[in-house]
Amino acid sequence: MQQNMFPGHDESDRKDKVSSLGRGLTIHLIESRSEARLFRQNIFIKTVDLSDKTARRLFVVDTVELGATKALLATALGISRQTIHNYIEMQKNFGREGLINSYHAANSKNRATQRKEQKEKLSKGNKARRLEAMRREEREAKERKEEQQSLFSNTATDSVQKIPSKEQPFSQVHDWKATRYAGVFLYLICLIGEFRWFDFVAGHFGGAYRIFMVFVLMVGRNIPSIEQLKNIRAGEAGAILGLGKLPSKPKLWEWFYTAADMKKSELLRNDYFRHQIRTGVVCVWLWFIDGHLLPYSGKEKVHYSYNTQRRMPMPGRTNLVTCDGNGRIVDFDIQEGKGDLRAHISELKRKWQGELSDTPLMVFDREGYGGDFFNALIQANIPFVTWDKYVDIAKLATIERECFKEKLIINDKEYRLFEGKKTFSYTLEMLDDEGKEQKQKFTVRRIYIWNKSSKRRTCGLAWTGDRDVSATDCARAILNRWGASENTFKHLADRHPFHYHPGFRTQKSEDQEIANPEIKKQQALLKSLRTKLSRLYKKISKAKDAFKKDGSERRNSVKKRLGDEISALEAEVEAALQTKDQLPERVDVSGLENYRSFKRIDNEGKNLFDFVTSSVWNARKQMVDWLGHSYNQENEVVDLFYTITHCHGWVKSGKTEVIVRLEPIRQPKRRAAQIQLCRKLTSLGARLPSGKWLRVEVGDDPT
User: What secondary structure does DSSP assign to 388-423, as a single string?
Assistant: First the structure.
């Protein structure tokens, strides 16, 4: 049993008024002395004289910061809830001096100076009225922002309204229906209520929105292809998506190609990702750019990408995905073959600079390493952080331990680091007076990182311009998405069908260049000639000179013959080198015999599916954050979320609302978090174009 550290303040001995404030806090009001005492779990914290106006204000603000419920505190002290809110806002906007309504200059010599400085420091007028004005300005700013957003989405809204009422989602009215896919509704209500996702989809594609609803089901339940939809219950799935009953496979493909043939995937992605940046769904401080292989196993000839895990090239494309510091997808771009990471990073700034007040700090891996590229980023004023590619491990091992002064802990791993500099040089386009190339030098920050757990040392590089970014922040950025840290691709592949590409279509690629095959032939010839030369060199080193009786060298001696053969081969090598140097490095396959042209895979269908995948992923990140507020087991929150989204349940479509009821989880603590998440989603006020409200709850079988 826990002992009270302050026996004189034991709440069991008190006969005065006792009120609970939540979070284990209780307040004891001693009316005889106008005094209040604060306890947490029967442990005394502080006391306050309520007759002292200043002390009472400070006590109220401090108690709220400890976790007290404002409404309970207001009832206990006999003040209004708005008063407590005003106290908190006063401290937030005017500091402690504004809260206590007085100011004492530290270096003042007399009361006149104090009063003068007090007038200068403190704002004029009633603070409560000023707070009302500030709240009014915030409301007006919010209304202006909503008005701008409504103007931005007028086209989308008009297109939604053009969908016939019978074709809109949940247009059918029915009583409770059982469905084993009820948990998927959480994604829909979050996307519709929090991200206005349906407005963009229906606004751009009209009645073709239905395939996107099917994609939400596939991504939410990790169904790897449209063909695998044959294994689900069509009636139950259609009921939770508001589509009645899912049609057969031919009809689903008809829905898909109706949407894909509109060629609006790029417009949809840009509008939706712009909306995410504007509304703060994604962060704009750190952007992580990485390439992900999309393998291809068909019969057509396509360009090769690179498989990092298998360390080998293979046919496919590269999906260059940009994530923020929380792992939410900001943008993605599917490129042919290996892709161009460097050009993509520069394109990100050009593409989104109209929505950003400042360029985010770009974080990428060693693929983007290069002095010329670093210089281009600096000239374009794009801050970056990356790994140092060519690191002398033996030299790093000689650095003294005392140099690594700063400490950093990520994922329970301890790192030590310090900062240095690294100089690069690049070639100027202009030649000097003597016709030689000119070199220009520039310097970037070099972060030395020591992993104490693995006892390994490495380096990172950074250029942050005039930004105040510490070495610790740079190290945290580079360590935050690789190694043992969370990797968006890894977790996406585990939970969702990230590699799926519906509807492969190919057409002739604009990039038909390959490495010149004649160069390969010349390289093979050079290798063969040099092998022969090596053998002849060994033989001639062992051959002996042969002379006639008069002392002259024999013409038909072995050494003479070997020398002649070596001279001839050396001439052939020189000729082959000249031929190889004159050949172009790359040639177009259309001008060669017995070569098939490269095909380019149409990305329209993949863009649509990945748009839904990224939307569901960002909704998942948001709902996991909400769930974490009511479930404090951090390592179990994600698994609990997927347990909730896989719950069975019931759906009811009425005239004014759509209600989904999930079966309750057995464990009380998890069930409480499940109920809280459903209440949060219902409070979003999600509404369909038909006017129906969306609601999700937890309960027993209503049938």
Answer: -SS--HHHHHTS-GGG--EEEEETTEEEEEEEEEEE
Whole-angstrom Cα distance, residue 573 to residue 551? 34
| Cα torsion through 647, 649, 654, 658, rounded to 10 | -10
The two tokens of residue 367 are 């693929």
Rounded Cα gap, residues 654 and 662, in angstroms? 17
- CA 614, CA 492: separation in Å to the nearest integer? 9
533: Cβ–Cβ under 8 A, 6 or more apart, which residues?
A: 566, 569, 570, 573
> What pLDDT does residue 118 have?
52
- Average pLDDT, whole number, for the chain? 83
Q: What angle do CA 672, 325, 221 make, to 5 degrees?
A: 50
SS3 174: strand
The DSSP-derived string for 271-328 is: HHHHHHHHTTSS-SSEEEEEEEEEE--SSS---EEEETTTTEEEEEEEEEEEEETTS-
Instruction: Pull the structure tokens for residue 252.
Output: 């689903």
How many Å apart are CA 460 and CA 483, to the nearest integer?
14
What b/e sequence results for 274-303 when a residue is b if at least 16 CB atoms lie within 10 Å of its CB, and e otherwise?
bbbbeeebbebebbbbbbbbbebeeebebb
Distance CA 245, CA 179 (A): 12
Separation between Cα atoms, residue 187 and residue 694, nearest integer Å: 12
Helix (H) or strand (E) holding 488: helix 488-495
Determine the pLDDT at residue 462: 94
Give the span between the Cα atoms of 121 and 103, in whole angstroms: 8
Q: What was the pLDDT predicted at 58?
A: 87
What percent of the chain is helix, strand and coil (3-state, nearest 5)? Answer: 50, 20, 30
Tokens 């954050």 appear where? 625
Closest CA to 27 of 3, 12, 11, 13: 11
| CB-CB contact of 426 with 381 (8 Å) | no
Distance CA 37, CA 49 (A): 9
Whole-number Å distance between alpha carbons of 259 and 502: 12
Which tokens in the block code for residue 520? 């390969």
Residue 227 DSSP one-character state: G
- H/E segment holding residue 611: helix 604-630
DSSP 8-state secondary structure symbol assigned to residue 7:
G
Q: What is the pLDDT of residue 600?
A: 75
Q: What is the pLDDT of residues 151-179, one digit of tens each?
A: 444 444 454 556 777 888 998 999 999 99
Candidates 221, 226, 184; CA nearest to 501 is 226
Contacts for 532-540: CB closer than 8 Å, 24+ residues apart: 532/569, 533/566, 533/569, 533/570, 533/573, 536/562, 536/565, 536/566, 536/569, 537/566, 540/566
pLDDT digits (tens, 9 = 90+) for 229-260: 999 999 999 999 999 899 999 999 999 999 99
| Residue ranges in the chain modelled with pLDDT below 70 | 1-15, 32-33, 101-127, 142-162, 428-437, 481-489, 509-510, 512, 551, 589-594
Count Cβ atoms within 10 A of the Cβ of residue 38 and give its class: 0-12 exposed, 13-18 middle, 19 or more buried. buried
Q: Which of 424, 289, 462 is CA-nearest to residue 365? A: 289
3-class DSSP state for residue 178? Answer: strand
Alpha carbon 340 to its chain's center: 20
Can you give the pLDDT at residue 12?
42
Q: For residue 76, what are its two tokens?
A: 């206990």
- Cα–Cα distances (Å) from 121 to 98, 109, 118, 127, in that order, read 9, 17, 5, 14
CA distances from 455 to 312, 420, 651 (A): 29, 20, 55
In contact, 148 and 206? CB cutoff 8 Å: no
> Other CB atoms closer than 10 Å to residue 181's CB: what's the count?
23
